[in-house]
Amino acid sequence: MIWKPNVTVAAVVEQEGKFLLVEETVLPETVPLLNQPAGHLEAGESLVQAVARETLEETGYTFTPEWLVGIYHWHSSDNNTTYLRFAFSGFVSDFDPDYVREACIVNAGWYAMSQIDELIMRHRSPLVKQCIQDFSAGNRYPLEILMHYN
């Protein structure tokens, strides 16, 4: 058997000093966890397409990626799964308040850094804060470094 990590994408979106995060239920009847709008790469789509799709599905916002913030390799001991996360920054537009979000998404909202720090025990993974820190440090890589072949 060939080992393969789970490829995921995440949107790091900042407006007026606040970051767009989602509250998601990972297991039934547990406290919702905080994450960037994020999810798995699907067959046939590019990483840029995936992050735009996931952001819309989880928040109702149209996301336009402008930069790659970083690539993160993380192993979750909770589910014994390795993730390879591509985090993008960009901007959101065209919010649809009536958009029917994925069932696991409890809420999407804007959080100040102080709130994000206070809620660190509810972060879905350590990547939530790391991606924000890297974005805040100015990490920006052109999308042209990513190649997608059909």
From TrEMBL:
Q: Which InterPro entries match?
A: NUDIX_hydrolase-like_dom_sf (IPR015797), NUDIX_hydrolase_CS (IPR020084), NUDIX_hydrolase_dom (IPR000086), NudJ (IPR033713)
Q: Which UniProt keywords apply?
A: Hydrolase, Magnesium
Gene3D superfamilies in alphabetical order: Nucleoside Triphosphate Pyrophosphohydrolase (3.90.79.10)
> What Pfam families does the database record attribute to this sequence?
NUDIX (PF00293)
Single GO molecular function: ribonucleoside triphosphate phosphatase activity
- Would I find Magnesium among this entry's keywords? yes
Give the transmembrane region(s).
Answer: none
User: What cofactors does the UniProt entry give for this protein?
Assistant: Mg(2+)
Q: Where is the Nudix hydrolase domain?
A: 2-133
Q: Which PROSITE patterns match?
A: NUDIX, NUDIX_BOX
**E.C. designation(s):** 3.6.1.-
Which family does the UniProt entry place this protein in?
Belongs to the Nudix hydrolase family. NudJ subfamily.
Protein name stated in the entry? Phosphatase NudJ
Task: Relate the assembly described in the record.
Answer: Monomer.
- Look up and give the organism this protein is from: Nitrosomonas marina
